[in-house]
Design brief:
Order of helices and strands: EEEEEEEE
Shape: globular
Distance between the termini: 26 Å
CATH architecture: Sandwich
Radius of gyration: 13 Å
Structural class: mainly beta
Strand order of the largest sheet: 1-2-3-8-5
CATH class: Mainly Beta
Helix content: under 10%
CATH topology: Immunoglobulin-like
Strand content: over 45%
Number of domains: 1
Number of helices: 0
């Protein structure tokens, strides 16, 4: 994905991939502050993350400063494409 602006004026890149209920996030840079990842598919479906904390109700993963990679586990398989 493209580089996104941060609140301190820097930019970071984010790569997202998935397989079943696992979503892998990779950041291109270490950040000085937390990174919040909020996707509509996460709302009410977050089970766990290997780094940081989750807010399942809001669909937000809060990654701590310095995180470069995290794997998020969803509660349900995504809908299959027909």
């Amino acid at each position: 994905m493209a580089y996104f602006p941060t609140i301190d004026g820097h930019r970071i890149g984010l790569s997202i991939s998935s397989s079943g209920t696992f979503v892998s996030l990779t950041l291109t840079e270490r950040t000085a502050g937390a990174v919040l990842v909020e996707l509509p598919a996460f709302v009410g479906d977050l089970a766990s993350t290997t780094r940081g904390t989750i807010d399942e109700r809001a669909g937000v993963v809060d990654l701590p400063a310095g995180t470069r990679q995290a794997t998020i586990t969803l509660r349900h398989d995504p809908p299959s494409e027909s």
